[in-house]
Amino acid sequence: MYPAAIAVAVLAFISVALDLPPFLWHLRNRNVPACALIFWLVTVNFFKGLNATIWSNDDLESWSRGYGLCDLEIRFFVGKHFGIPAALVCCIRALAVVLDTKHTVVTTSKGARRKQYIAEIMFCFVMPILMNAVYYINQPERYYIFGITGCDWTIDQSWLAIVLIIVWPFIFCLIATYYSGLVLFRLYRYRRDFSRLLQHNSTTRSRFFRLFIFSLLIVLGFLPASIMAFIANVSEKHTAYSFDETHADFDQIVLVPSYGQVFWDKWVEIACGFLAFAFFGTGADALRMYSHWLGKTGIAKVLPTIEPRTRDQEQTSRIGSATWASLASVSGKAKNVFGRKDSHIGTELSSM
User: Which residues cross the membrane (predicted)?
Assistant: First the structure.
């Protein structure tokens, strides 16, 4: 077993365990983009840790061929290819729209919120699922198996693959970068009113900036990778698309030794898993959730300071910690908080 395989397995499984509580917290509060972002990271890192234990060396003759497992994994990997950049766009766009002063609404109806949730689910989950069907068009082999990192997907060398598969994560990362710059600009422009606005909308500066900084760091991690992948694929010699030629060896499984090395982009995904916990798993809301869980396990009898919250406290916390819901009502209250036209710092959140 390569040392790198041990490191990948241990770090990947640790990141999965750490990210599950933040994922459940966002799921409970219907923060679809943040929930989707953590979901894709958890799924990818879980498979990464599992693969490192199965294909931990370069003894190709003894390798499992991954029947069934790899067929499943590559579907998630293709989904992640689109899902993470799409979730980033939704996360950062939502924060940018919060600071929009030109499109304000007095209240956000249940119907509008429902449409917002549906749009976010379509963009963060349904679209990656649909792209798996599109991927079949450019899938030349069944899958690849690399040493240590295991199952992986591949595409043909046609120009159609660039249009259907390669270009979209690159475009999403560029859009997310644009919204990141827009958030920074609006934060600077409305820096004097920002704190007052958040105080009147059941949210905190900490929640806002944790989500923004986390999303920004992932953009900085995935943008170079998407640029390099896009340039590398465009620079290669491409052929006209032929369905028959692409699928001529469709049942082939390609085995690739690692020589003890792991591609750097695999480490980036593991690092993003730890960042997710650092930003979402150590805040006041997360600590209250941990305290609630520990209290229900009976540890409160041993440590009296750890007590489960009452129903009223739980409801109060949900109202105060539902980040997306509280941010969605910013626009209506902004008009009451600030009388000047240039101080309206709110709008309805929507992901599309």
Answer: 6-25, 37-56, 76-96, 117-138, 158-187, 208-232, 267-287
